[in-house]
Amino acid sequence: MRSTDGYVKTIGETADRLIYDRDRTHRIGMPEAVFCLDKSVGDVALIVEHLVSSGVGPVLFTRMCQLQYDAAVNRSDAPLDYEPVSQTAFLNGSMAERNAHVGIVAAGTSDRPVALEAQRTLQFLGIASQLHIDVGVAGLWRLLDRVEELRRERVLIVVAGMDAALASVVGGLVGCPVIAVPTSTGYGAARNGETALNAMLASCAQGVVVTNIDNGFGAACAAARILAAT
Amino acid sequence: MRSTDGYVKTIGETADRLIYDRDRTHRIGMPEAVFCLDKSVGDVALIVEHLVSSGVGPVLFTRMCQLQYDAAVNRSDAPLDYEPVSQTAFLNGSMAERNAHVGIVAAGTSDRPVALEAQRTLQFLGIASQLHIDVGVAGLWRLLDRVEELRRERVLIVVAGMDAALASVVGGLVGCPVIAVPTSTGYGAARNGETALNAMLASCAQGVVVTNIDNGFGAACAAARILAAT
Amino acid sequence: MRSTDGYVKTIGETADRLIYDRDRTHRIGMPEAVFCLDKSVGDVALIVEHLVSSGVGPVLFTRMCQLQYDAAVNRSDAPLDYEPVSQTAFLNGSMAERNAHVGIVAAGTSDRPVALEAQRTLQFLGIASQLHIDVGVAGLWRLLDRVEELRRERVLIVVAGMDAALASVVGGLVGCPVIAVPTSTGYGAARNGETALNAMLASCAQGVVVTNIDNGFGAACAAARILAAT
Amino acid sequence: MRSTDGYVKTIGETADRLIYDRDRTHRIGMPEAVFCLDKSVGDVALIVEHLVSSGVGPVLFTRMCQLQYDAAVNRSDAPLDYEPVSQTAFLNGSMAERNAHVGIVAAGTSDRPVALEAQRTLQFLGIASQLHIDVGVAGLWRLLDRVEELRRERVLIVVAGMDAALASVVGGLVGCPVIAVPTSTGYGAARNGETALNAMLASCAQGVVVTNIDNGFGAACAAARILAAT
Amino acid sequence: MRSTDGYVKTIGETADRLIYDRDRTHRIGMPEAVFCLDKSVGDVALIVEHLVSSGVGPVLFTRMCQLQYDAAVNRSDAPLDYEPVSQTAFLNGSMAERNAHVGIVAAGTSDRPVALEAQRTLQFLGIASQLHIDVGVAGLWRLLDRVEELRRERVLIVVAGMDAALASVVGGLVGCPVIAVPTSTGYGAARNGETALNAMLASCAQGVVVTNIDNGFGAACAAARILAAT
Amino acid sequence: MRSTDGYVKTIGETADRLIYDRDRTHRIGMPEAVFCLDKSVGDVALIVEHLVSSGVGPVLFTRMCQLQYDAAVNRSDAPLDYEPVSQTAFLNGSMAERNAHVGIVAAGTSDRPVALEAQRTLQFLGIASQLHIDVGVAGLWRLLDRVEELRRERVLIVVAGMDAALASVVGGLVGCPVIAVPTSTGYGAARNGETALNAMLASCAQGVVVTNIDNGFGAACAAARILAAT
Amino acid sequence: MRSTDGYVKTIGETADRLIYDRDRTHRIGMPEAVFCLDKSVGDVALIVEHLVSSGVGPVLFTRMCQLQYDAAVNRSDAPLDYEPVSQTAFLNGSMAERNAHVGIVAAGTSDRPVALEAQRTLQFLGIASQLHIDVGVAGLWRLLDRVEELRRERVLIVVAGMDAALASVVGGLVGCPVIAVPTSTGYGAARNGETALNAMLASCAQGVVVTNIDNGFGAACAAARILAAT
Amino acid sequence: MRSTDGYVKTIGETADRLIYDRDRTHRIGMPEAVFCLDKSVGDVALIVEHLVSSGVGPVLFTRMCQLQYDAAVNRSDAPLDYEPVSQTAFLNGSMAERNAHVGIVAAGTSDRPVALEAQRTLQFLGIASQLHIDVGVAGLWRLLDRVEELRRERVLIVVAGMDAALASVVGGLVGCPVIAVPTSTGYGAARNGETALNAMLASCAQGVVVTNIDNGFGAACAAARILAAT
């Protein structure tokens, strides 16, 4: 992305032109989230201010870095519930709790930020979850010890980088929907998550579905669609 | 793949070593399917014969070309229910019908073989489906005319190649689980389905999940996992 | 690009060797623009000084970052009209206004710097424009509400990243020339804009043409060529 | 693409489900074209038969190979105007002639099928054109001899493979809209047209726009959009 | 590769110029093998004839297709021991048997040609082996049932395509050298074996080493180097 | 490339429009060559006929397959000197002999077609050469035995595929110009010659220059430029 | 990877959930190592503290940068033996010395950090080694001078970037196991180590095995597996 | 590349192990150059000190950044002749002047650092040169005005990024050796110089040879090899 020095000073004039998709919850059961990665610090602060003042319901912010959070709070004193590892913030609380539960399985500590993004998004959507970290297949017993627990979940999110073998192994052990999230951990042949992505897509376990690299948010939304469908 | 001339003559000696995963239906609710694309004509015939004689339950064959089907029937007179566009065959019937329904939406006629693979797999798994073809976004009204019908489905499979814009548009219109299947239709920048795959993964519609390119089978299995979870 | 520490101190000796293409407006109807991205801060300042002193007509600078702008103003007190979000500057004013209008459609706030580069370039070329932001297809009604307005434009520039589905949808709704600009927004499978680029090139909407990733300048120049041709 | 043996025998049952976008000429000024590359021989024959019997206006078929043409004529005795080098066919004549003209410039003989696809599509859309072949930059005088002629065109389509340098040179010499079509000629580093595509996108000539690799059809549609806009 | 029609008729004149590396067994413990994939049918026949007449010791031919084998036998009546699935041939017998054993583990039937190339190469090098097929991780029990047997091997070769998860799981279960061979089985995101290759290189199991895609020959040679080192 | 069935029947009408660059020998010291790979059988025959009848000097055809050669001879009884392994043909003899010599070094038998294309092109340009085949670095002594001979050449062409290590080793042993030609031999990670190409470009031996993959013709032309410059 | 500001403050709550694979030495002869590259500074400090307090045996940390080391020492006063070039640290000493020796050969000074990672990992595993640097093939005599010395090693690790020709040359000179480690040195066509990786995989020297780019740790573990197997 | 904090403190112990290839000038006519890009600041300073104290002849350093230069001068007071734009330094002067001249042609100001690296390397090798900047093909007259001047050179180096069309145009206008250097200027589809590289390799101008991206040093060494060969 291009640098966006000075972005703040012009957005002010056009902030009223932003079109927040207020109807989305009605259409698809989830509100529009604000993805902060490609937005300047100033933009995010203005968007938060705009949403605070316009009285929308709960809004989720993803990929909000500490600087963006600080700027938003400084500008509008917004009541943001911010969690820094997952880089998520809730504005105006979260959605009503549902009677639903999701299991999240992550291969290693490096995959934790993505797993937490999924968990926080689920929490925002009113869905409880249980996180299992450090169960990569190099120490297979760590996973096998939990198979019975995993089999009791209605949906599983599997988060893994590098070879992403965990998704195939889990997919062969359980019958519930398995949403695989490749992560950008690793180096060299891990190719910033592309290898994990492709390995999950080419998984020998049938019916595993996949999201974008590092997209814990998307996995949680998919889980919410599934739980709503049942 | 390497050519495999003569494969038939040696597989005979080792066919008894093939390990069909008979326990899979118990573990994940679906039997192991036999993927024929990388297998020689003779191999497929031998595997069919072996499965016929060993008395397993219903088995699905995918990517079975006409030559493989002919060889299998010639060798063992197997009761295969073969459908040539989807390149699928059922051995020993199919699974018990479930009270479940899936919508399949395909952008154009070129995507039809993949859409049919999904439909046939669903049929094998006991799940009814409705196929909507030629609803690509270049003629948006064709899709908008059917929105209400699509909103009544519990799961949607969206099949599209080239720009794969259909997945994003559908994902923004419905709240049920959306399983996107990229196809290898198109040329040049379509990159044999990679562009559709990446566009679906990077979709602006939240919670759309994706399968491998041309993987109608995988999409149907994912739908079955979802319907079983509900 | 290699780092270019110290570039300033040697360019001074050779600045008189730079060959500004003064004849370009005569040949193609637009002056040569100075692309600053791969140039050092010192180089840009020297080029500005050189152009100021040599008495050329209006010159457009693109991808000029704040540091380059500051250095140029410090060195030569050049009368630069700088806009920081689009990173554009006008030297010696702009070209004569034409009786022409262009519509610019951008999928989201993250695409705004590119859309503004197009708008500022059009302004430099004497062409008025209207900018429509936040009309991505995940909330399709935002676009459909404006179709009649868009159909009245003689040229449309469509700016979108990630899945770039907006270009296909717009291309199927209007008959005027559609210039699609992919942006580098998104992450993972968005592949720094390559997915949007390829999706636009493989668009199912016939006759959509494409520029380089993030190239708002090029889209505006193409629009100017079209408007001059009419 | 998967093989589609036997495709013919099932499409018959569903041909009535094909949705030809009859409204497209009204919306965008051009009818829907039928792209035959990813369709089986039998499918194309059925689509031709279906369109013949349903009484639509002029229809263009692109990437129709000789086998598909023969099958279509055998089945329905359709009045197809077929040209084999461009692999195009007109059903029910072509659109009304417009008072418009386009220049097509192609680097070498190998690029001729793509240039002819553009020319035939223009002819179908009622637009005359002049084709200039073998004017690649390795013999620059061949192009320079024709500059004045090219400058008189309202739109230029430039077709080139390998290094695609022709697009940049032409783009620097004329002020009219330049639509660049990369071709898949060449080998090795030509990468099946990707190098030409990227070189055209990264062209140093401002305002050159680009279509998909080998997409003469798309370039002609873009030219028609431009000529309609004027 | 370029087509090489007529290759036979000129190679005859220069066959005496071929330099077979007779010293290789002395230097590295294995003779030079003849890789037939990029050679014409006639070339292979001439090379066989040349080696037969020049009295070398045992020679291994890899990637020799049936046509090449037939031509070689027709021309020189060479005493080739040919195995068609692995596409290997032994000329003048094989090397002396060593007191050594290797385990070969393959994920599925589609990986069998590559596994057999490894097994035949080992046999040529005088090394016995045991082949385990159809032990992919989607049915994990098939592998776990054999762990004790695998732990008794001094070297393991793991052959797998698609997600290649088998290499990571095996690498985490045994302490002996693990040589991973990616195969080109699969489609789409399997990317002709690149995904398996990268997943094996990025494996979470420490100390797994990798060969080229489909390179059963190389894996066997590596095993021979290891067994010779002990 | 698209298929070009029927190409012959239309080229006849436009063959007089082909512009052979008769001035090229004057400008750059070498005539234009006709590259046949992307041309149909009929096109090549027509071009040969056209050149025969128009009385040009010597012309080189490259990548001319046997079918194209047969068609050309059948149509115009052209006096073509054809060599099938290199796929080259001379029309109207060759250029005057120069007092110059080039060494060609090829790693293995599989690289021979490319090495012969270089040798035949040199012969056409009047330059003698010596070919050294089977000197790949896996048997380093084969190369070291010839170092003194190679050091006496004024230009060396090095032809190698796969790892292309030969170019670096030769480049470190001699001081004359080294033109490296990557070949598409190998499989998997050889990536159709891209690995050899990149390895040659990234060679640790300084001043090695590189041509396109399999481009023996280009290497010979570069050698001719060098020899003419001296 | 996403930024992980603030990671420290939350990991504290879950550090007790980390599952260190204590059984790994029993299973595969080597303990689990902690890979620090994708972990935040705070995470690494917490993991060190956790391992110190829980009384495990020797632990190796790889890719630990100076900041991570400083934070770990500040927090827990851990007895870390840190070496900054290789970015490795030993906690609680190292494994018992084995009677084993490995040769490490590196092409140039730039490859030294990776070579040292291999050497330090071997030292941690109780294995002595000898490092040979600056023996790239551009100055072939530097390698040839040491051939006899290299032939006496039981295992060789070859570390090289750019063209990676060193691996092929060494592989053709010695018969012991050769573990090739590509490095990310070089620029442009070196493609961050991919070219070296592919060249090593496609090596003309038979039986060379390969690790991930820059993976000196993996090469050392592979050597340890080999030495344990003998 | 991995970070190499602390590299300085360990290299001291092993600096005596560096093997400078003193024999290279004798073998290939040029001394070994020290490539600084992948070396730490401390390493470069130590290497300079080592070379100063060991009394070698002239040594060229390339890609030496200002920090490395400052550290080297601080440590050893080495008599380095440093030029910051080209990032080159001469130690102990340069080689004897030859009676030779090279022309360097660069498309734009952004390509100047690479062009200067070529010029400085030539100067180090005793070869005079003339630099022509800002002659890109978008303003073709700038190049055509200089054709006669360029035709008088014995060797031409052409430096260009983005579409790299300049190399093809120059290659078609002159008969001397043309060494093309792609640069990493541009963005998006320029792909960090890969597009320029591939376009130069696939150039329609026969006999153009190519170096790595941004490799002005290599181009100058190739020119020196050519001039020495004459």
Give a description of the structure:
The structure is a homooctamer of 230-residue chains. With 230 residues, chain A is α/β, with parallel strands linked by helices. Chain A is built from 10 helices and 9 strands. In chain A, helix 1 runs parallel beside helix 3, helix 3 crosses helix 4 and helix 5 (112-124) packs across helix 10 (216-229). Chain A is globular, with a radius of gyration of 19 Å. The interface between E and G is large, with 41 and 42 residues.
Low-confidence stretches of chain A: 1-16
Please indicate the percent range of residues of chain A in DSSP E strands (runs of 2 or more): 15-25%
Quaternary status: homooctamer
**Number of helical regions of chain A:** 10
Distance between the termini of chain A: 40 Å
Strand order of the largest sheet of chain A: 6-5-7-8-9
Biggest chain pair interface = E-G, 41 and 42 residues
Rg of chain A, nearest Å: 19 Å
State the total count of DSSP E strands of chain A. 9
* SSE pattern of chain A, N- to C-terminal: HHEHEHEEEHEHHEHEHEH
**How would you sum up the major sheet of chain A?**
5 strands, parallel
Mean pLDDT of chain A: 91
Compile the SSE list and pairings.
Eight copies of one chain form a homooctamer.
Chain A: H1 7-14, H2 24-28, E1 34-35, H3 41-54, E2 59-62, H4 66-76, E3 80-83, E4 88-91, E5 101-106, H5 112-124, E6 128-132, H6 140-144, H7 147-151, E7 156-160, H8 165-173, E8 178-182, H9 194-201, E9 209-210, H10 216-229
Parallel strand pairs in A: 1-2, 5-6, 5-7, 7-8, 8-9
Antiparallel strand pairs in A: 2-4, 3-4
